C-alpha cells in the first residue's frame, strides 16, 4: 500500500496550510482511494536547536570517555535540573547540562537537543536522569535517533547543524528543530485498487487529490528537461518471440548513461527522509534516486553498472533451464514464459541480467565503486510481469506498478529526472546520446452517449458534468454540444490518457463520471424485499444441523479446501479408494497443497491438531463445507483464449471438467468431554459420542440414520459404523461414517487416544428427509416399559433387530433404544446379545396386561422371523 507524506504530496498539489493527514485521507476517500492507516509525526515534544557552550571530557573507569556538555537551548528552555538559570563560570548565559558519548562536535557547534518530554521514533521518551555523576537534562541527538538515517557527510555521531554560521542548516538556540528537519511530516497510507495503478505515485495521488478538492495540480513530468536527444546510445534489441496472448512483453525500452559519478556521494538527507516516510530503506545515492523517481512519477527504473554491461541489451523470453541469481541472492530456475533482460557478457556471449519488470540480477548491480551507470526505463506487459512475479514468489515495488499498468509516455522523462538528480548530488555528466527502442500505441477512442451515465447510474448528469469529468481525468473529448455538431451532439468520442490503461469501454467512463461528480450524490435506496417464505428448506436444514452440534458443545471452525497429495496415505485410504480421485489445481496457493479435498476430515483433522498444539487438552470441533470429486481422471479443464467468446464445445468441455461438489458435515471429538470438577474427571469422548452427534445432526434436519458396522478408513476397523438413510423406494443410501479413528491416524495427527469422528453428506441427508413434517399429538396415557435381550448371529446389525422390534410392536412402538451388547461363553461362539429398552404407548387408552403381553409375543416373533433372533433367558 502506498504511503503518502503530506510534504511530498504538497509539491504536486496545493494543500492548505492547515491540512492534516486525517483531512487528506478523507478527501482521497471521496474519489475511491481508501485510507489504510495514518502515521503522525515521529517526533513530538520539545526538540530544539542548541549551541554548545562548554564541553568537558571525563574519562571513566570502564575506559570510556564521556562529555559533560553545557548547551544553550534558548531563553524558554534554559532551565537545567542541576543549575536552574544560574550561569557557570565561563558561561555567557544560562544553559542545560547534558551527558553525551559522541565526539564529532565541539564548542560553538549548533546541535539538535531533545529536552525532557520529547518522544523520539520507537516511542522513546526523554527524561532528566542521573548518570555519570551528573543530571543529564536532555539528549543531544544523532540522525539515527531521529529516524533520519546516517549523516550524509559520512560522519558517525550526532547531527551538527553548523559551526558558527559557516555551513549547514540555519537556526538559533531555542528554534524548533522538528520543523527545521522536517520531522513533523504526517503520512497517509492508502489502498489502491488494481485498476488505479497510476496512484502508486505521488504524481497520481496528487492528481486524485485535485479531483477531490479542486486544489491546483502541478504535473512534474512537463517540467523535466530532456537533454539527451541524439540517438545512438547503448544498443537494445526487443526480441519477444513468444508473446503472451499475442501481446509483446516489452513495447518500449529507454536507456541513458551517466558517467563520472562520485561513488562516495551520499543521498541528501531530505531524500532519505522521504524514502523512509514512504516505507523504503535508503541504500545508496544511485539506488535511492531510482526509488525516489519511481515513487514520485510512477515509472520503475533500474540502474546497471555500465562497466559490467556488455552490449547489446536484448529483451527476450527465457530458455528452458536458464538460471538467474537475483538481487536477493536467490538462484532461480527460469520459465519459458519469463521475460528477461540479457546482454552479451556471458561465457557463451549471452548473459541474463534480470527478470523484466520484477528484479535485476547481481552480475551488473551497482556497488560502492560504481562511477558509470546505465539507467533503464521500459514499458512491460502487465500480464507477463504479474505471472513472473507470482511464479517466482518475488513481489517487488516495480512489479506492483508494472502489473497494474505504467504510463508508456513516462520512460523518457523518468530517466532524465533520475539522471539529473544523480548528477546534482553525485556529480558526473549525462551522455548526450539516448536509446529509445520500440513504440507507444495510442489509446483507443471510446464512443459514449451523454445520456449513458444517467442510464447506467440512475441519477441525472448534465452534459457539462459528463464532459468536465472526462476532461478532468485527462481524456481528450470530441463531439457533443461544445463542438457545435448538431448531428452528433449527444455523442462523445473520448480518448483516454496514456496513464489510464484501465479505461477501455463505455462503462469505465461512466464509472469515472460517477466518481468525480461524487458517490455521495447517488442516493442509498434499499430494494424492497422479494415476497416469499424466507429461507429455503435446505438453508434452514443446514443451519439446524450446525446449531444441533453447537448445542452439543462443539465449536464450529473453518479450513481451506486445499490438501497435499500425502493426505490420502496419512488417512490410510486404499489404493483403489474413490476418495483419491482429487481435483488438481493448476495454479495453487501453495505448491505443497495442489489438491482439493475429497473428504472434509482431510482438512478438519489438521485443524484439530493445530488447536491441540496451541495448548488445548481436548478437541470438539465441526465444520460444514464443500468437498470435491474429479469427474474425469487426470483431465484438465481447457483454458479458452480471452480474445473471443468460447465456443459451445469449449463451454461444454469446461463444464464437464468441473468437479462434482457437495456439502458435507464433519466433526472430530477427543480427550475429556468437559472440564474437571469436584465430582471428578469428565468422561472422555468416544465412538458412541460420534454416532450420537451424527444422529443429532440428522434429526435436526428431519432424517433418521441407520447404522451398520463397516471397515472404512480412517476409522478403527472394529469401532466404526456406516451411516445410511432410507430412500423413497424403500432402499437405503450410504451418507457417511462415524466411529473411533484408527490408532495410526490418531498417532499421525497427534490426537488424544481414542479420538472419534463422523462425516456426513449433509445434502444427501437433507434430500432424504421427509418433505412434510406431521405433528405428533401429545400423549395423554401412560407408557409401558419392556426390556428384551435377543441372541443373534454376530454378523446381524443392531439396526436390523431394532427394525424388527418396531414392526412387531406396530402402532404401539413409541421408542426403541439399544442399551447393551454382550458377547461371551454364555452366549456361544459367533453370537451376541443385544438388549433393547422398548417404550409402548396407546393413543386410545391405558395398556392392559393382555395388550402388553400380546405386543411382547409379536415382537419376539418378528425378531425371530426377520433375523433369527432368540429371546435370551
UniProtKB/TrEMBL annotation:
Residues 41-172 form the TRNA-binding domain. InterPro entries: aa-tRNA-synth_II/BPL/LPL, B3/B4_tRNA-bd, DNA-bd_dom_put_sf, Fdx_antiC-bd, Fdx_antiC-bd_sf, NA-bd_OB-fold, Phe-tRNA-ligase_IIc_bsu, Phe-tRNA-ligase_IIc_bsu_bact. GO terms for molecular function: ATP binding; magnesium ion binding; phenylalanine-tRNA ligase activity; tRNA binding. Its cofactor is Mg(2+). Residues 441-524 form the B5 domain. Residues 779-872 form the FDX-ACB domain. Tetramer of two alpha and two beta subunits. PANTHER family: PHENYLALANINE--TRNA LIGASE BETA SUBUNIT, PHENYLALANYL-TRNA SYNTHETASE BETA CHAIN AND LEUCINE-RICH REPEAT-CONTAINING PROTEIN 47. This is Phenylalanine--tRNA ligase beta subunit. It comes from Brachybacterium aquaticum. The lineage of its organism: Bacteria, Bacillati, Actinomycetota, Actinomycetes, Micrococcales. The gene is pheT.
Amino acid at each position: 500500500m502506498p504511503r503518502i507524506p503530506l510534504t511530498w504530496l504538497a509539491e504536486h498539489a496545493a494543500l492548505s496550510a492547515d491540512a492534516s493527514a486525517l483531512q487528506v485521507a478523507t478527501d482521497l476517500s471521496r474519489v475511491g482511494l481508501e485510507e489504510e492507516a495514518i502515521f503522525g509525526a515521529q517526533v513530538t515534544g520539545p526538540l530544539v536547536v542548541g549551541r554548545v557552550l562548554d564541553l568537558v571530557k571525563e574519562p571513566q573507569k570502564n575506559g570510556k570517555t564521556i562529555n559533560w556538555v553545557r548547551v544553550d537551548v534558548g531563553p524558554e528552555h534554559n532551565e537545567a535540573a542541576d543549575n536552574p538559570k544560574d550561569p557557570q563560570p565561563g558561561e555567557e548565559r544560562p544553559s542545560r547540562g547534558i551527558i553525551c558519548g559522541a565526539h564529532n562536535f565541539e564548542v560553538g557547534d549548533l546541535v539538535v537537543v531533545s529536552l525532557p518530554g520529547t518522544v523520539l521514533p520507537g516511542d522513546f521518551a526523554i527524561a532528566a536522569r542521573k548518570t555519570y555523576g551528573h543530571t543529564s537534562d536532555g539528549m543531544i541527538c544523532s540522525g539515527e535517533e531521529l529516524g533520519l538515517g546516517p549523516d550524509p557527510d559520512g560522519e558517525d555521531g550526532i547531527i551538527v547543524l553548523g559551526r558558527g554560521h559557516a555551513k549547514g542548516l540555519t537556526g538559533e538556540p531555542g528554534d524548533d528543530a522538528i520543523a527545521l528537519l522536517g520531522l513533523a511530516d504526517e503520512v497517509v497510507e492508502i489502498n489502491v485498487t488494481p485498476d488505479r495503478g497510476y496512484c502508486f505515485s505521488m504524481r497520481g495521488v496528487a492528481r486524485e487529490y485535485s479531483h477531490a478538492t479542486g486544489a491546483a495540480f502541478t504535473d512534474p513530468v512537463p517540467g523535466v528537461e530532456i537533454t539527451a536527444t541524439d540517438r545512438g546510445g547503448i544498443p537494445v534489441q526487443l526480441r519477444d518471440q513468444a508473446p503472451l496472448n499475442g501481446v509483446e512483453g516489452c513495447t518500449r525500452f529507454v536507456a541513458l548513461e551517466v558517467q563520472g559519478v562520485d561513488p562516495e556521494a551520499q543521498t541528501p538527507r531530505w531524500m532519505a527522509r522521504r524514502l523512509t516516510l514512504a516505507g523504503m530503506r535508503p541504500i545508496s545515492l544511485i539506488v535511492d534516486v531510482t526509488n525516489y523517481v519511481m515513487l514520485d512519477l510512477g515509472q520503475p527504473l533500474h540502474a546497471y553498472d555500465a562497466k559490467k554491461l556488455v552490449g547489446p541489451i536484448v529483451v527476450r523470453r527465457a530458455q528452458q533451464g536458464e538460471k538467474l541469481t537475483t538481487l536477493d541472492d536467490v538462484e532461480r530456475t527460469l520459465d519459458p514464459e519469463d521475460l528477461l533482460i540479457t546482454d552479451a557478457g556471458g561465457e557463451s556471449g549471452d548473459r541474463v541480467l534480470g527478470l523484466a519488470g520484477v528484479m535485476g540480477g547481481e552480475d551488473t548491480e551497482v556497488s560502492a565503486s560504481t562511477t558509470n551507470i546505465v539507467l533503464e526505463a521500459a514499458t512491460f506487459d502487465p500480464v507477463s510481469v504479474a505471472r513472473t512475479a507470482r511464479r517466482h514468489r518475488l513481489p517487488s515495488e516495480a512489479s506492483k506498478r508494472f502489473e497494474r499498468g505504467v504510463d508508456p509516455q513516462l520512460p523518457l522523462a523518468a530517466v532524465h529526472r533520475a539522471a539529473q538528480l544523480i548528477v546534482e548530488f553525485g556529480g558526473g555528466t549525462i551522455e548526450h546520446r539516448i536509446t529509445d527502442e520500440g513504440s507507444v500505441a495510442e489509446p483507443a477512442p471510446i464512443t459514449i452517449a451523454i445520456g449513458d451515465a444517467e442510464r447506467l447510474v440512475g441519477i441525472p448528469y448534465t452534459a457539462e458534468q459528463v464532459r468536465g469529468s472526462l476532461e478532468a481525468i485527462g481524456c481528450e473529448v470530441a463531439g457533443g454540444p461544445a463542438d457545435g455538431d448538431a448531428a452528433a451532439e449527444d455523442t462523445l468520442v473520448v480518448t483516454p490518457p496514456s496513464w489510464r490503461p484501465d479505461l477501455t469501454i463505455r462503462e469505465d467512463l461512466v464509472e469515472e463520471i460517477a466518481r468525480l461528480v461524487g458517490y455521495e450524490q447517488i442516493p442509498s435506496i434499499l430494494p424492497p424485499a422479494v415476497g416469499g417464505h424466507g429461507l429455503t428448506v435446505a438453508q434452514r436444514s443446514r443451519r439446524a444441523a450446525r446449531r444441533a452440534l453447537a448445542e452439543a458443545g462443539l465449536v464450529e471452525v473453518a479450513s481451506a479446501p486445499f490438501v497435499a497429495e500425502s493426505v490420502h496415505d496419512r488417512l490410510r485410504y486404499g489404493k483403489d479408494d474413490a476418495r483419491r480421485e482429487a481435483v488438481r489445481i493448476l495454479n495453487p496457493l501453495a505448491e505443497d497443497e495442489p489438491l482439493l479435498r475429497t473428504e472434509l476430515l482431510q482438512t478438519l483433522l489438521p485443524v484439530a491438531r493445530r488447536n491441540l498444539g496451541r495448548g488445548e487438552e481436548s478437541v470438539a470441533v465441526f465444520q460444514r463445507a464443500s468437498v470435491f470429486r474429479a469427474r474425469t481422471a487426470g483431465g484438465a479443464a481447457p483454458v479458452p483464449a480471452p480474445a473471443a467468446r468460447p465456443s459451445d464445445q469449449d463451454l461444454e468441455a469446461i463444464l464437464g471438467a468441473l468437479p462434482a461438489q457437495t456439502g458435507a458435515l464433519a466433526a472430530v471429538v477427543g480427550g475429556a468431554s468437559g472440564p474437571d470438577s469436584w465430582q471428578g474427571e469428565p468422561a472422555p469422548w468416544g465412538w458412541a459420542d460420534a454416532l450420537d452427534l451424527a444422529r443429532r445432526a440428522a434429526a435436526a434436519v428431519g432424517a433418521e440414520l441407520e447404522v451398520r458396522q463397516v471397515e472404512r478408513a480412517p476409522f478403527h476397523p472394529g469401532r466404526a459404523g456406516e451411516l445410511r438413510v432410507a430412500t423413497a423406494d424403500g432402499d437405503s443410501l450410504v451418507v457417511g461414517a462415524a466411529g473411533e479413528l484408527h490408532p495410526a491416524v490418531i498417532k499421525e495427527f497427534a490426537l488424544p487416544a481414542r479420538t472419534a469422528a463422523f462425516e456426513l453428506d449433509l445434502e444427501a441427508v437433507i434430500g432424504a428427509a421427509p418433505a412434510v413434517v406431521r405433528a405428533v399429538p401429545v400423549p395423554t396415557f401412560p407408557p409401558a416399559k419392556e426390556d428384551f435381550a435377543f441372541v443373534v448371529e454376530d454378523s446381524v446389525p443392531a439396526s436390523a433387530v431394532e427394525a424388527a422390534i418396531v414392526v412387531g410392536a406396530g402402532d404401539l412402538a413409541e421408542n426403541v433404544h439399544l442399551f447393551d451388547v454382550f458377547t461371551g461363553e454364555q452366549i456361544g461362539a459367533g453370537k451376541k446379545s443385544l438388549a433393547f429398552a422398548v417404550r409402548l404407548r396407546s393413543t386410545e387408552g391405558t395398556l392392559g396386561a393382555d395388550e402388553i403381553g400380546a405386543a411382547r409375543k409379536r415382537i419376539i416373533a418378528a425378531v425371530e422371523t426377520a433375523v433369527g433372533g432368540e429371546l435370551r433367558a
